[in-house]
């Protein structure tokens, strides 16, 4: 019965239109739109990757082995399941160009291909000639960025190792471009046969061999993957098919998309403050209506349902509006977005992200409206007639509090489910909750401080009036601090994390990192390599070590994946080395190093931190597949390994006897003064054309660029949160417009000038903005410190430029919102305002 009556009352209330709910709808729609837009872009990219998976991969499936060619057994299996097969090699090397001022060098990622390449997809060149023609003889194609850097154009010659090549065309697009992961050099493509005699593919060189397969129509990919893993898992063979054509790019899109959705949730939390304030203000204006209904016999349930249904309808409208904006905007802007993406996308209206955004929006609205709705039913009619709605400080009934707790838990569970990241979701939720609690306490503290400071402001009318308004019970202080503070907190945390990551890579690392990282040094070259550097006074340190790559296949006889889960050490191949005596600077945390000249069963020293993460202890046996051969070694020691200084570090070190005779190369890090770097590279590359030099500063620059792109995307999400907070701020200022009009009328009657009144309003807004900005800065610094310390495991320093921007933004935003709704109260005549008030 009460539901039917409440529905009738709610329907009649809704006839009054949306007056009082504009901020409610704007906050809800903006938060939902942000989440829906991010989800739609992510779904569009995933759809594009799925559609073009085979073209991106260069085949229906890819089989990869590391630092060797496929065995006869492996090739026979691949030929049996496929119609066609293409073999390519991938490795880094140096392009050398003879110029008027000597040789110029540039790092490149080489793909050596056979005549069947590409199986699926097209290679686009400039000029537009067939790839077969471009690679004929000693022909090569190269990406424009490298050609421009070295001053090369079509027809010019260059060297790779000890072989000369001719640039036939510029490489514009090629299959598998999106799945190669992070590369340190632009791409160059040559024929595999053209590398004969180059010295680049000697035994022990670092390269991977990829076999792309054109499978028969209707081939079942999952059973083939399982068959490959069952037959060749212990050989280090890795399978990938068109379902994951973009590889790491696809995982990156999924993760950054999930993170941006979580940032969007923080925007919804800010909007929730506005939603709660709007509902509270609306119900405060309905005090007479609620009192009348109570007097006529309406129950608490009827009153609650009346406004619950009304706000529920408006919530659905706001969510629908947000879905319309968030879902359609990426589709409308599809050409612009696709032009900025290096990977394919297919933008359309996708149900999944819209459902996710709708669920978040509805749950957020429920959580933030239950409190004021519950309190409306708890207050007696006599109290409503006698006092304002906001005057009560009682808590809602325990049932409502329990319902809010259940809704919050449900929101967290769904956020974990949608994002697929438990750790990140809980961190985000914890950060939002902590910031809200901090801001609520801060708002209370600011009001208390303002009340106590009024005495000290005697004689300063503008300041005294501003402090009185800030400290007033039921004023706008709490709404301003919460809405503006939470938005600025997110922006402050993102800015601090971004700045610290950039500093970690671009400022601190080069001071301690080596100048060059050299790879593919052959065993017969290492002595001459060291001799050249030993004679250079500007070289402060040289670290060298033999290196090969291996895949951990088993731990104590069990498949490594079952023991270590998804730990990074067992994903793919890992660098390992060998040593006889314990190397200088090696610190053992447990166990003992094998004696010099050891010739017994294989022994291994494992990185202590990674061993603890996996659960390894002394005595465990690790099986590593190296160049197709299984080696099982016992862990006899654990040691400290630092990854912070860009020096040489290996998770696994084996005794020298175990790896005696295995093909391998050496790697070396060279620490030198910057002005000596060019001469070092020139001398070593001239003497040993096969070696590859990676300049650490160039690698750092690429990492900084990548971090900058991620941070920019995150900042956009944080700015959306701030925009939502500004909307809430406008709502709070609009709600206080009548109070300002009355205040201005009284002050005018007492003789205050318009300038004095405006100054008081401006000072009030500025002080509130300053307080919100300061608290947001503290919350942002704590959040940034927590992420850098516990997630990034890096040092944290305050980025003061960002800190200043946050406080300035708080003052400006509060001033704009406050003054925008101060002009009309100032223009009103005191007589009209005071007569209406009576």
UniProtKB/TrEMBL annotation:
Its main location: membrane. The chain crosses the membrane at residues 21-41, 259-283, 304-337, 357-374, 395-418, 424-450, 761-787, 799-823. It is a multi-pass membrane protein. Keywords: Cell membrane, Membrane, Transmembrane, Transmembrane helix. It comes from Neptunicoccus cionae. This is Drug:proton antiporter. Residues 263-375, 718-829 form the ABC3 transporter permease C-terminal domain. It is found in: Cell membrane. GO terms for cellular component: plasma membrane. Pfam families: FtsX.
């Amino acid at each position: 019965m009460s539901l039917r009556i409440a529905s009738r009352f709610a329907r009649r209330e809704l006839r009054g239109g949306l007056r009082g709910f504009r901020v409610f709808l704007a906050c809800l729609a903006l938060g939902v739109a942000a989440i829906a837009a991010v989800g739609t872009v992510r779904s569009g990219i995933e759809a594009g990757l799925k559609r073009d998976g085979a073209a991106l991969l260069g085949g229906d499936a890819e089989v990869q082995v590391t630092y060797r060619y496929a065995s006869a057994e492996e090739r026979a299996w691949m030929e049996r399941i496929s119609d066609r097969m293409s073999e390519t090699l991938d490795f880094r090397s140096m392009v050398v160009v003879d110029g008027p001022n000597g040789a110029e060098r540039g790092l490149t990622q080489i793909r050596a291909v056979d005549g069947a390449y590409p199986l699926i997809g097209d290679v686009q060149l400039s000029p537009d000639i067939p790839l077969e023609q471009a690679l004929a003889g000693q022909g090569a194609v190269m990406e424009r960025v490298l050609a421009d850097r070295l001053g090369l154009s079509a027809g010019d010659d260059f060297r790779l190792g000890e072989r000369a090549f001719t640039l036939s065309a510029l490489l514009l697009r090629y299959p598998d471009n999106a799945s190669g992961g992070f590369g340190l050099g632009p791409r160059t493509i040559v024929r595999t046969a053209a590398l004969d005699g180059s010295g680049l593919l000697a035994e022990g060189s670092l390269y991977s061999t990829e076999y792309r397969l054109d499978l028969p129509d209707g081939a079942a990919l999952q059973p083939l993957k399982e068959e490959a893993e069952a037959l060749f898992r212990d050989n280090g063979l890795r399978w990938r098919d068109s379902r994951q054509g973009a590889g790491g790019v696809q995982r990156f899109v999924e993760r950054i998309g999930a993170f941006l959705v979580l940032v969007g949730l923080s925007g919804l939390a800010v909007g929730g403050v506005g939603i709660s304030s709007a509902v509270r203000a609306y119900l405060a204006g309905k005090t007479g209506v609620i009192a009348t209904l109570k007097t006529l016999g309406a129950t608490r349930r009827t009153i609650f349902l009346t406004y619950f249904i009304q706000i529920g309808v408006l919530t659905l409208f706001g969510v629908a509006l947000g879905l319309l904006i968030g879902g359609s905007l990426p589709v409308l802007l599809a050409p612009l977005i696709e032009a900025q993406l290096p990977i394919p996308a297919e933008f359309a209206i996708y149900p999944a992200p819209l459902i996710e955004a709708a669920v978040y929006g509805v749950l957020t609205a429920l959580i933030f409206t239950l409190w004021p709705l519950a309190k409306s039913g708890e207050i007696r009619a006599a109290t409503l007639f006698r006092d304002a709605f906001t005057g009560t400080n009682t808590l809602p009934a325990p049932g409502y509090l329990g319902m809010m707790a259940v809704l919050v838990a449900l929101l967290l569970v769904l956020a974990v489910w949608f994002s697929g990241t438990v750790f990140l979701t809980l961190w985000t939720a914890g950060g939002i909750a902590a910031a809200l609690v901090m801001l609520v306490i801060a708002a209370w503290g600011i009001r208390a401080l303002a009340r106590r400071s009024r005495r000290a402001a005697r004689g300063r009318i503008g300041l005294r009036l501003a402090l009185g308004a800030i400290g007033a019970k039921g004023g706008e202080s709490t709404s301003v601090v919460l809405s503006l503070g939470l938005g600025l907190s997110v922006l402050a945390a993102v800015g601090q994390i971004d700045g610290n990551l950039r500093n970690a890579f671009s400022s601190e690392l080069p001071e301690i990192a080596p100048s060059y990282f050299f790879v593919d040094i052959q065993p017969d070259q290492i002595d001459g390599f060291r001799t050249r550097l030993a004679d250079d006074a500007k070289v402060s340190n040289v670290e060298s070590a033999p290196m090969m790559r291996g895949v951990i296949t088993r731990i104590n006889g069990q498949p490594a994946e079952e023991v270590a889960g998804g730990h990074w050490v067992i994903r793919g191949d890992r660098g390992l080395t060998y040593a006889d005596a314990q190397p200088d600077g090696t610190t053992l945390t447990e166990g003992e190093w094998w004696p010099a000249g050891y010739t017994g069963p294989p022994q291994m020293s494992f990185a202590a931190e990674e061993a603890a993460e996996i659960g390894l202890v002394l005595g465990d046996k690790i099986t590593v597949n190296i160049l197709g051969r299984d080696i099982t070694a016992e862990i006899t020691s654990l040691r400290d390994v630092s990854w912070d200084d860009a020096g040489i570090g290996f998770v696994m070190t084996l005794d020298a006897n175990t790896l005696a005779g295995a093909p391998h190369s050496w790697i070396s890090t060279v620490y030198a003064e910057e002005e000596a770097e060019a001469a070092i590279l020139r001398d070593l590359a001239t003497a040993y054309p096969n070696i590859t030099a990676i300049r650490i500063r160039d690698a750092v620059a690429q990492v900084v660029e990548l971090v900058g792109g991620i941070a920019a995307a995150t900042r956009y999400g944080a700015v959306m949160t701030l925009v939502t907070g500004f909307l809430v701020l406008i709502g709070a200022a609009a709600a206080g417009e009548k109070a300002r009009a009355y205040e201005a009328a009284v002050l005018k009657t007492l003789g205050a000038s318009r300038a004095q009144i405006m100054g008081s309003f401006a000072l009030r807004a500025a002080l509130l903005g300053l307080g919100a900005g300061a608290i947001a800065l503290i919350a942002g610094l704590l959040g940034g410190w927590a992420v850098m310390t516990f997630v990034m495991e890096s040092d944290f320093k305050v980025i003061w430029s960002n800190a200043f921007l946050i406080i300035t933004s708080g003052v400006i935003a509060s001033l704009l919102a406050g003054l925008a709704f101060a002009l009309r109260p100032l223009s009103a005549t005191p007589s009209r305002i005071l007569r209406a008030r009576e």
